[in-house]
Every structure is written in C-alpha cells, then in structure tokens.
Design goal:
Strand order of the largest sheet: 1-2-3-4-5-6-7-8-9-10-11-14-15-16-17-18
Number of domains: 1
Number of strands: 18
CATH topology: Porin
Strand content: over 45%
Shape: globular
Structural class: mainly beta
Number of helices: 3
Radius of gyration: 21 Å
Largest sheet: 16 strands, antiparallel, barrel
Helix content: under 10%
CATH architecture: Beta Barrel
Order of helices and strands: HHEEEEEHEEEEEEEEEEEEE
Length: 428
C-alpha cells in the first residue's frame, strides 16, 4: 500500500525526509547498478473546507497592538501546510507573526492545497542521490496570500560508507528537530492539519546536515544521530527567512534517537535541541534556544505519538523580518507546548479499500511576547483517513480550538475559530 507504506517510512525521522528508498546498510555498488536512475513522482491535494466565524482568530473590537501578539493566528488551520482560512485584520496592525492564508474567511470552499512534483536522480554505481521538490499553491490574491511556486526541497546526499548508515546532505531539506516534520507532506500526514507547535519545528532549512545510525541487533535496537547547521533553524518560512542568513551565523539543531523493534511492538524515542541566532532579525547576539522530546509506540494496529517543546527567543533591537514582510519589533518570546495522537488502523482490507484509520489528537500551546498578553490555547482534533487502490487518500477532520483564560483574567479573547476540513490526496 503505497500511501500507508510511505507513512510508515516517515516514522523513521533519522533516515531521509522524502518517501523514497531506505538507507539500508549504506552504499552498495552492486545494488546501485540495479536502481532506476531518474524518477518523477508527486501528488495533488484537493481540499473542501469550512471555518466557523470569520475564519481567523481575530475578533471585532480588539484594538491591541500588534494584534497578532495577543491571539493564536495559526489555530484555524485548513490543510497540511498549516495555512489558515483567513488572516484578515480589517486594517489593524500586525507584526508578522502570521501564518499563510487561503483567504476564504468563513465561507466553505474547494481548494487546490498543493500540486507537488518530486524529481529523484540516483547515478548508477555512485553513492550520490539528488532530490528536488517543486510545489504550486494557487491562492486567492485579493483576500489571501498570492499564488506561489516554491522549490521546497533541493539537496544532494552522499552515502560514502558501504557498511554504515551515514548520509551527508547539502541544500534545502526537512528539519531534523523532533518528529512532526516527517508528516509535512499531505500524502504522508495521517490527518489533514499540523499541530499547534508545528510552526516551530517543521520548517525547511538551507545548509548542511548529517545522519548516522548504528544497529544493536542483540537487543533488537538502534541508536541514531541527526545534526544540522542551517540559516534559519527549524521554523516555517512564514515566520523566518530561509534563503539567506540575516546575521551571518548559522543555527545548530539535532536529535538523538532510540528505536526498539520487536515483532509486535515498536518503540521510538528522541531528544532534540536547537541553538543559534534568531534569523528573523539582523543582530547575531540575539539567540534562539529550544529543546524537545518525542515518543512513538506502535502495537497491533494501534499507535501513539507525541511531542513536547520548550523554546525561547532573546530580545533584539533590530526590526523583525518574516515571510510576511518587515515588522517593527523583535521581542523576547517564550513558548512551551506539545501534542499527543492516538490512532487505530482497522483490520479491513480489500483490493479497493486498502486502509482505514481513525485518529484523535490533543494539542496545547502556551506562549507570550515580553510585555504582551500571554496566549494559552488548546485544540481537540478528530480525523478519519480512507486509502483506496494505494493511490488515493480521503481524509475528514474536525478541529475544535479553545482560548484558555489566565489566572489574572488575561489571555486571548474567546473567538469562534473551529474548522471542518477534508482532503483528497492523489499520488502519482
């Protein structure tokens, strides 16, 4: 089953961030000669979405400045990219802490979420692999973001050792931090939308990274290391520029992972860290720091996955630069949060119906900019995924967002920002 096998492969964050061939035991010239040299694959993600309220987290009459520092604008997500139904503020000032928007407000709409094409090239007899992913996102320019064509990934990978799982990457690639980046793409994500903390961990980095894993066969285990040095760290492109370092310094990130692989039980756990300059401003002495822990357990068709994050940004006197443009402030910022997901793949399978999975996820996020409102939110998500012919994934999802009050009566104002979304992903 192509889609679910791709999702299963994505459960290995320490291998490769694209759903392609397993690393195996490293470079083997005999196997390389038998590989197909050039492959072109991709997917189309079509959505049908309805957000409640006005499609945003902004309420009428909220005159706080900047407006996006006092609410969670990312909460009403509608697709796997984390884009929201609306970021319309009716002219009120924001400082660039905003997601991408599809610009539909509270009206139901069909969407082409993503049209994606992957090109893979494996020269025969050489331990080099090349990959590029080009994506088109058609958008309603009048009310949302402009239509974008994005070279989301473009890297070369070298696997120089025959009997060791060592891979070195140069270019633009997925994050190495945590585990949610494994589900960035709609054809790999079990549900439709990312978590409330995905904006900090699932961005694509430009730079260099290295992966190494060694097996412990006597105890059915493996230990892995993922390290990266990038311009931007691990945040999504809407928050932090990727294509150049604004400070002239790089951000280091990494993950240490452990795997236990038994016949009916798999356990995977990891610890991640990040340190370096903020790349949303131009002062190298303003730092960002983050730590995270993750856990996955799978047994008899039932799977649990979860992640916890703690992140801190130092204050900078420089102006804020994001994917939304140039803002005025680069305030000190703190966040902690996490998510947990329980899923069950039903034991039903026919020639047409190749998989049915039901899922529930709980997210929580507590964040604040120094001197501004502390924003405490959570979300309950219910999802259903049906796979057909190994080529089509049909997904239904409901997001129930809540703004939680603080003990002193502060916090984000209550807003009607739930989302009912769906996605049909055609993989080719």
């Amino acid at each position: 089953m192509a889609l679910l096998s791709g999702a299963a492969f994505a459960e290995e964050p320490e291998t490769v961030e694209v759903p392609v061939e397993d690393e195996g035991d490293g470079y083997n010239p005999d196997e390389a000669k038998a590989e197909e040299s050039l492959r072109i694959t991709g997917y189309v993600d079509v959505g049908l979405v309805k957000a409640t309220g006005n499609g945003s987290s902004f309420t009428d009459g909220d005159s706080r400045t900047p407006l996006d520092y006092g609410v969670d604008a990312f909460a009403p997500a509608v697709n796997s990219r984390g884009e929201v139904a609306s970021t319309n503020t009716d002219g009120r000032f924001t400082n660039g802490f905003l997601p991408r928007s599809v610009g539909i407000g509270g009206a139901p709409s069909f969407l082409i979420n993503t049209a994606s094409a992957d090109v893979r090239f494996q020269p025969k007899g050489i331990p080099v692999f090349l990959f590029a992913r080009l994506q088109l996102m058609p958008r309603l320019q009048a009310q949302g973001d402009q239509t974008r064509v994005e070279l989301q990934q473009a890297f070369g990978r070298v696997s120089p050792l025959k009997n060791h799982e060592l891979a070195i990457f140069l270019g633009r690639f997925d994050s190495v931090f945590g585990i949610e980046y494994l589900e960035n793409e709609a054809n790999l994500r079990p549900g439709v939308t990312p978590s409330l903390i995905a904006r900090y961990t699932t961005g694509h980095g430009l730079g260099a990274k290295a992966f190494y894993r060694f097996q412990l066969p006597s105890i059915w285990s493996a230990v892995s290391f993922n390290l990266a040095a990038t311009n931007n760290g691990t945040r999504i492109e809407a928050l932090v520029p990727v294509d150049a370092s604004l400070t002239g310094n790089f951000v280091g990130s990494g993950r240490v992972g452990y795997e236990l692989n038994l016949q009916h039980l798999q356990v995977k756990a990891g610890v991640s860290g990040l340190y370096g300059p903020r790349n949303d401003q131009r002062v190298a002495t303003a730092r960002q720091m983050a730590v995270a822990g993750d856990l996955r357990i799978t047994a008899y068709g039932v799977s649990f996955a979860g992640e916890f994050l703690r992140l801190f940004d130092e204050h900078s006197p420089a102006g804020k630069v994001t994917g939304q443009g140039v803002g005025e402030l680069a305030s000190r910022f703190e966040v902690y949060g996490g998510w947990g997901r329980l899923s069950w793949t039903l034991p039903w399978k026919t020639e047409v119906l190749t998989g049915v999975t039901v899922m529930g996820r709980y997210d929580r996020r507590f964040a604040w900019f120094e001197g501004y409102t502390k924003v405490h939110t959570d979300r309950f998500t219910a999802s259903l995924r049906i796979d057909l012919w190994d080529l089509v994934a049909l997904k239904l999802e409901a997001l129930f967002n809540r703004e939680l009050p603080e003990p002193n009566g502060s916090g984000a104002p209550n807003v009607d920002n739930d989302v009912f979304t769906s996605s049909a992903v055609f993989t080719w």
